[in-house]
Structure formats: C-alpha cells, structure tokens
Amino acid sequence: MTKIDIINLVAEDTGLSKVKSEEAVETIIATIKETLQLGESVILRRFGSFQIRSKNARIGRNPKTGEEAPISARKVVRFKSGKYFKGAMNETPVRFY
Length: 97
What we know:
Strand 3 and strand 4 form a beta hairpin. This protein is an alpha+beta fold. The two termini are 18 Å apart. The radius of gyration is 19 Å and the shape is elongated. The chain has two domains: 1-39; 41-92, IHF-like DNA-binding proteins (HU Protein, Chain A, Irregular). It has helices at residues 3-14, 18-37, 83-88; strands at residues 42-44, 48-55, 58-61, 68-71, 74-81.
C-alpha cells in the first residue's frame, strides 16, 4: 500500500475530498516527523510507537571487497509494534475504525 492508497481510503471512508484527505495524511506524517526531530516518542495506542535511537560511530566492512570503512554516528527511527497490532497480524484482515 502506498501513501496515495491511504489517501484514497481516507477519502472513501470519511467522505472528504481527495485534496482534504491528502492534507490530513500529510499533516499526520509531518507531525510525526517533527515530534521525532525534537527527540520525543510518538505513541499510537493499539498500533505501536516510534522512537529515535542513536547509533555510535563504528568501523564497517564492504562485503564485496572486504575493505574497512568508517560509519559515522547517526540517529535512526525505531518502530515497536503494540500488542493489538501484533495480534492482528495473525488474524483475518479486519478494518479498525
């Protein structure tokens, strides 16, 4: 599923126009990004949580040549699925709304 598929689904389910649905989806995504950039977690009950994790600098290895290469420190996003989301993965698909 792509972002446009989500936008179309939101428009269909809510009766909003596709333009308004796109604005809503973009606003949600932007809010999640901004919150993570501030170093805060985003917790979506019954779905999961997004967190920023710091990775230390280290020496990596090119798998093709075996040559060592430095990998700089960076931040990565970690998603941890919630209990209900995990459970839903083992059931018949159902729409939650």
